[in-house]
Specification:
heterodimer; A: alpha/beta; Pyruvate-ferredoxin Oxidoreductase, domain 3; Rossmann fold; 3 domains; five-stranded mixed β-sheet; globular; B: alpha/beta; eight-stranded mixed β-sheet; two-stranded antiparallel ribbon; 9 helices; 20% strand; binds thiamine diphosphate; binds iron/sulfur cluster; binds magnesium ion
């Protein structure tokens, strides 16, 4: 069983609230959920919608074509009538006009009753979601009639609903994060908000300095004085941080930078998704210094990888860029098991105990400035040598992940959350292919070249105009993915299952 | 016994530069505080980029040589990350009042317990003498006359409710030492500006030095404003008050 439910309306009508209500009803019964959020950069009005995919099998993507359309306003029906499957069911707010703001609850109940949820199921979720609406829910449940009745199973699964940002927040706290610093910018803001929410119960402090420039410089100070620190930002904010990034490169003060992408250039399209910042993560900053760039696909992986990020930043004293996109950060996924993590300890020398000097200038081993030619050369060699050592370390950490038919000669490359939709398609459709998700983008694993050697036809799926990942693969393996094998999308929306399935079927025979 | 907190780095300031005097004052402060029971490891210096910031290399203390204009957030971070450290930040007028003024404004609001010491030579010296926000009105730089009124940083600090505001004469090493020491002991953000002539790019500041006069430590805000208004950073006639202009109780 797999259904798609679209809930649409104006910003401020509680679309996320009812999406979460409906998602929880299903996940409580052990169904897998994926929830895509499509919203505009405005606070009230406009047109926003969520697509919830409910499935008996694992799923982390959604289709464009929908089975249930829940309309909180008239426009939703108008806008999405093209997206309806045959026999789709439409639920409209006007049926419950007298309920005013509670119309969203009524619509959730109506939808839930179609799926044969019982009153106690609703009340259980309401306990947390709408504690003061329990009587209303009980009352509405008795009153609302539905024609359709679909069978509901109780699946034996323990599923936690979690969005990408929340998984990074939780993984960081489990790793022992002491400080998070950020300046609000979509789609990194939700991470800042989660940390703020978790600040009280954990030994964590969250700071919002006056600008991204201040964020990174303050963070480097905090790291220097002996703490595990992360900063978070998006495109333009990251640009402002890049002088600080080079500073981290020269001073070797460890730092993890969370970079959540949205379509640029410049202000671009703030609330939509993109993978256009790969080059930014790889090449930003002046001078030459080692860095680590990695990009997770889904929460379970992100939790493990953020833990590795802190470990690597401390061990090698390099900046680590944790690259994600809006599609990862703000989509809701189903997490079955929270991975066990090791707390990361700070083992370097810290001021207060010793005399420690770190510098933005080229420096001697005691931290004092040098312009000596031999020393400059040695320092450069020493810094760049780390790239090799880091590579050795990440080869042990699953730098890539492979899904689909493992022995297939058809290979699809991707990075970030784009892996989810490809993985889902290869799981449920008859397509002879495997997908290689490149998790560590810098340094670049040797395993990638081996995969290329084993394959006949190589494809790429990514969300940018110039196929930045193709360029990276070529730079590292000398293999160029043919233009006709590049599936690129750059309209701010993620790949949808049905749309990408057709594309892959066309190309992979 | 005084502890030698020098380093082996060769000092590259121009001979006679008042930065030497500031270095000496800071050494005396640290030594006094060590004698009073602090450890050498308890201090942390943060510098910007500029002639002033070379002090990082000449003090055997923990520290970070930061970016131009960014010493303040770096210093705030160190203090927040390890509140036991006594943190001193050094900046020039270029770094503090041009490139990084946003940080100065917010640091005063945030009132993190650090001492900010600004070497105001009214010039970008390390980059060969270009004008800064405190370059005097009418100064000629390569045949071009400066036509902007200088910023009065003391008034700026007071307007933001700064709680410790002082101005130093580097030639009076003992007084500079006394003021910097007080700024370190002050709980909260302290703003200390040193009127530091650059021998190469602002020798005209010698005229100002004749107008220096010492004031008594002041704790009244109305007086502070009156003191701040005495010199407009351009005038060669006005008296230039030196001392603790305002310290909040
Ligand atoms: C971002 C950035 N911009 C410009 C510079 C070049 N720069 C180095 S020192 C300096 C000016 C220093 O003037 P000031 O802060 O007054 O210090 P002084 O040399 O006068 O002590 C500048 C602009 C730099 N290092 N970084
Ligand atoms: S250029 Fe000016 S400020 Fe710099 S060292 Fe020489 S005299 Fe001092
Ligand atoms: Mg200067």
């Amino acid at each position: 069983m797999k259904y798609h439910i679209l809930i649409g309306g104006k910003a401020g009508q509680g679309i996320n609230k009812i999406s979460s209500f409906i998602s929880k009803l299903f996940s409580e019964k052990g169904y897998y959920i994926f929830n895509y959020r499509d919203y505009q950069s405005l606070i009230r009005g406009g047109h926003n919608f969520n697509i919830i995919c409910v499935s008996e099998g694992k799923i982390s993507s959604c289709e464009k074509k929908i089975d249930f359309l829940v309309c909180l306003d008239e426009r939703t029906k108008e806008i999405h009538k093209e997206d309806l499957k045959k026999n789709a069911v439409i639920l409209e707010a006007k049926e419950f006009e007298n309920l005013k703001i509670d119309v969203n609850i009524a619509l959730s109940i109506k939808l839930g009753k179609i799926f044969s949820f019982e009153k106690k199921d609703f009340l259980k979720i309401a306990e947390k979601e709408f504690p003061n609406k329990k009587d209303l829910i009980s009352d509405l449940y008795d009153k609302i009639e539905t024609k359709e009745k679909l069978p509901l199973k109780k699946l034996n699964k323990n599923i936690e609903l979690i969005d990408g940002s929340k998984s990074v927040a939780k993984g960081s706290i489990e790793s022992g994060l002491n400080f998070y610093l950020g300046y609000p910018m979509t789609p990194s803001t939700s991470l800042l908000n989660y940390f703020k929410e978790y600040e009280k119960e954990n030994s964590l402090r969250v700071l919002q300095p006056e600008s991204e420039i201040s964020v990174i410089n303050t963070a480097l100070g905090i790291s220097f004085s002996g703490n595990l620190v992360m900063v978070g930002t998006s495109g333009g904010g990251f640009d402002l941080m890049t002088e600080g990034l080079s500073f981290a490169g020269q001073s070797e003060i460890p730092l993890v930078i969370y970079l959540a992408s949205r379509p640029g250039p410049s202000t671009g399209v703030p609330t939509y998704t993109s993978q256009g910042d790969l080059n930014l993560a790889l090449f930003s900053g002046h001078g030459e210094f080692p860095r680590i760039v990695l990009s997770p696909g889904y929460p379970e992986q992100a939790i493990k990888k953020i833990n590795e990020s802190f470990f690597l930043a401390e061990k090698f004293r390099v900046p680590v860029i944790f690259l994600t996109e809006k599609n990862f950060a703000e989509s809701l996924f189903s997490l079955e098991k929270f991975p066990k993590l090791k707390k990361i300890k700070i083992e370097r020398e810290i001021p207060g105990e010793q005399i420690v000097k770190n510098s933005s200038y080229e420096h001697l081993s005691n931290g004092e400035t040098t312009e000596n030619e031999e020393q400059i050369k040695e320092n450069n060699k020493k810094r760049i040598k780390k790239e090799k050592e880091i590579l050795e370390e990440i080869e042990k950490m699953s730098p890539i992940e492979i899904f689909g038919k493992k022995d297939s000669k058809n290979l699809i490359f991707c990075f970030g959350s784009t892996v989810n939709v490809i993985k889902d398609i290869l799981t449920y459709e008859k397509i002879d292919a495997k997908v290689v998700q490149i998790i560590y983008l810098k340094p670049f694993s040797k395993k990638i070249k081996e995969e290329i050697k084993k394959s006949k036809n190589i494809f790429i799926v990514e969300q940018n105009v110039t196929s930045q990942l193709s360029r990276l693969i070529k730079e590292n393996t000398l293999y160029e993915i043919p233009e006709k094998n590049r599936i690129l999308k750059y309209n701010g929306r993620p790949f949808f299952y049905d749309e990408l399935k057709e594309e892959l079927k066309k190309r992979i025979k | 016994m005084t502890k030698d907190i020098s380093t082996k780095s060769q000092i590259t300031w121009c001979p006679g530069c008042p930065n030497f005097l500031i270095l000496e004052a800071v050494k005396r402060v640290i030594n006094e505080l060590i004698k009073e029971g602090n450890k050498q490891e308890d201090f942390c210096i943060v510098t910007d980029i500029g002639c002033n910031s070379k002090i990082y290399d000449y003090l055997n203390l923990s520290g970070v040589y930061g970016l131009h204009g960014r010493a303040v957030p770096l210093a705030e971070g160190i203090k927040i990350g390890n509140p036991k450290l006594k943190v001193l930040a050094f900046q020039g007028d270029g770094g503090a009042y041009a490139e990084g003024i946003e940080h100065l404004i917010h640091a005063i609001r945030k009132n993190t317990d650090i001492s900010l010491i600004i070497h105001n030579n009214e010039a970008f010296s390390l980059t060969t003498g270009q004008p800064t926000p405190t370059t005097p009105f009418g100064k000629k730089i390569k045949n071009e006359e400066i036509k902007l009124e200088p910023l009065n940083p003391i008034k700026l600090a007071l307007s933001l409710n700064a709680k410790f505001v002082a101005r130093c004469n580097p030639y009076d090493i003992e007084d500079t030492k006394r003021i910097i020491k007080k700024s370190i002991l002050f709980k909260g953000f302290s703003f200390v500006e040193i009127i530091q002539k650059c021998l190469i790019f602002s020798p005209e500041m010698s005229i100002f030095e004749k107008n220096f006069y010492k004031i008594e430590d002041n704790k009244r805000l109305e007086n502070a404003w009156e003191i701040a208004n005495q010199w407009n950073y351009s005038s060669t006639e006005q008296k230039i008050p030196i001392g603790i202009i305002y310290e909040k109780n």
